[in-house]
């Protein structure tokens, strides 16, 4: 997995609440057996008409937001299904950080597996960041994972919380399975114990 | 004396294989359910790393999301090439990695969350995961069950564990008795209406109270199934005699002395007196009405007697979301919900595709016809549910009423197969999500119980089922 350290990039505002995984990547694109290539269909039904023409009003179609790397979104971003195609599409588009007041649990976890940093901020901070994102491509936001801060284009800085272990894995780009395999003896021991205590499992 | 524990605490503690100082755990997984959409990349990952499935005997695969439900599928050919490739990939992966498998041709095939309990794979006190958010369904057995992404599917395949931190405890109590015509679906939607779709974020919910205890296993599965729509990681119901009765004798349930040993442990799986919950929500069972959704989020739920709400009646970002939803759904503020005309009815899904759901719908439809021009279909949750419904004469009731009687699969719940809404079509659906485009591009979904779906099929508009009872 790619490491996430410090990101300086364009932030796009998506104030809509409850942006669900069907909006992020509609089911027609779940038929792939690959992880790559989904960026072009990110937010497909909002981004294109039925003929595949771009909707010029959609934020990521506007010239100033084409190279967006940070999304500032409304409450409960990523609710709905467990499809990892959602973070795959986000990452494939080039977005590496999503900021909201809250995220759906499975989506939140899926982000970390794909080098994306989801940041939870209180409403009043999201409001400030949303305003900053509305400035377009001249405004670069800075997300510093090590320092756990988001800084607006005006230099106003806000701290955020992130689980220490998740932070470590993201900073180092660590592979979860490899990490777990370091504890394979504990898994063996657990299975041995369970074979005695709960043999019906 | 140890501190009193919740049901969630007990199941969690019984599955920690390793704990780091910061509380990050390796949680051992007893059952891993797999379907064709969220697994191909995971199996490919194993192959590329030269890894095996650690516990193939605890891994159960079944294709459900993509499969056609029309009767011609017995020919074995899936017309949509991408769907066919995905199902074939699961066939191949299941064989290559040696996991338990129910192919499309097997009568036991069906929606993964219906097959697991039906075959006795899901048992009380287990940890159950699947690359599907509606894994919460299995919580009805007092199993800790939740959806995971594909990276985690690969992690579980390789290690039989998940890297997890514990969630908070939330209690949802439904006191008293339900009124006639009110079902498990109405309970679970009413709870989401109360808490919102993010109300459960960070929590595992335990549902309790008299109205929950009175539910059958089918009804309990419906309640837990939609815990995810309330944002919770999982929903749980403590196992009791109803649970044990359902489990006993199922193909993969323990037998003989092992049954007795299991039962002894299962009977300890309840929340201790005085255990701590971080959040408590209480609803009165007798106050719950048959409900429907009007908007494009499962929290947009109202009693059938209500009207389409004004966006200004909401707060914050929800004002704009409600405006957008009303426009998308083609509704007028103040319109009576019972005046909303329906052209499609879908009965099925992991929420409401079990035998009791079909009985409830058939009860309303018996001797009646669906409205002229209505498209109505029943998609049983598994081949065995279908067979049982045929045996009980339910299939005949549906067919005589004008419903299509389909083969098992996820079908129009998420419309990955050919069962979809066309642009502007409006569906009374027993499924779990009313998101924009969920049942087809620009399709409009109203979530309802099976009995309410049957009522709408007859009258052609959203209807209070109690008027037909």
Automatic annotation (TrEMBL), chain A:
Ranges where the Aconitase A/isopropylmalate dehydratase small subunit swivel domain occurs: 1-123
Q: Which GO terms describe its cellular component?
A: 3-isopropylmalate dehydratase complex
Catalytic activity, EC = 4.2.1.33
Q: In which pathway does it act?
A: Amino-acid biosynthesis; L-leucine biosynthesis; L-leucine from 3-methyl-2-oxobutanoate: step 2/4
Name of the top EC class for this enzyme:
lyase
Q: What InterPro entries does the annotation carry?
A: 3-IsopropMal_deHydase_ssu, Aconitase/3IPM_dehydase_swvl, AconitaseA/IPMdHydase_ssu_swvl, IPMI_Swivel, LeuD
Per its record, what are the GO molecular function terms? 3-isopropylmalate dehydratase activity
Catalytic reaction equation(s)? (2R,3S)-3-isopropylmalate = (2S)-2-isopropylmalate
Decide whether keyword Transmembrane is in the record.
Answer: no
Any one Pfam family match given in the protein's UniProt record, by short name: Aconitase_C
Which example biological process does GO assign this protein? L-leucine biosynthetic process
Q: Which UniProt keywords apply?
A: Amino-acid biosynthesis, Branched-chain amino acid biosynthesis, Leucine biosynthesis, Lyase
Q: Does the keyword Membrane apply?
A: no
Task: State the protein's purpose.
Answer: Catalyzes the isomerization between 2-isopropylmalate and 3-isopropylmalate, via the formation of 2-isopropylmaleate.
- Assembly and interactions? Heterodimer of LeuC and LeuD.
What family does the entry list?
A: Belongs to the LeuD family. LeuD type 1 subfamily.
Put simply, this protein is called 3-isopropylmalate dehydratase small subunit
TrEMBL record, chain B:
Q: Which UniProt keywords apply?
A: 4Fe-4S, Amino-acid biosynthesis, Branched-chain amino acid biosynthesis, Iron, Iron-sulfur, Leucine biosynthesis, Lyase, Metal-binding
**Which molecular function GO terms apply here?**
3-isopropylmalate dehydratase activity; 4 iron, 4 sulfur cluster binding; metal ion binding
Q: What is the cofactor note?
A: Binds 1 [4Fe-4S] cluster per subunit.
Q: Which positions bind [4Fe-4S] cluster?
A: 350, 410, 413
Q: What is this protein called?
A: 3-isopropylmalate dehydratase large subunit
InterPro entries, from UniProt? 3-IsopropMal_deHydase_lsu, Acnase/IPM_dHydase_lsu_aba_1/3, Acoase/IPM_deHydtase_lsu_aba, Aconitase_4Fe-4S_BS, Aconitase_4Fe-4S_dom, IPM_dehydratase_rel_enz, IPMI_cat
- What this chain does, per the record? Catalyzes the isomerization between 2-isopropylmalate and 3-isopropylmalate, via the formation of 2-isopropylmaleate.
The pathway is: Amino-acid biosynthesis; L-leucine biosynthesis; L-leucine from 3-methyl-2-oxobutanoate: step 2/4
The catalytic activity of this protein is classed by the Enzyme Commission as: 4.2.1.33
* Annotated family: Belongs to the aconitase/IPM isomerase family. LeuC type 1 subfamily.
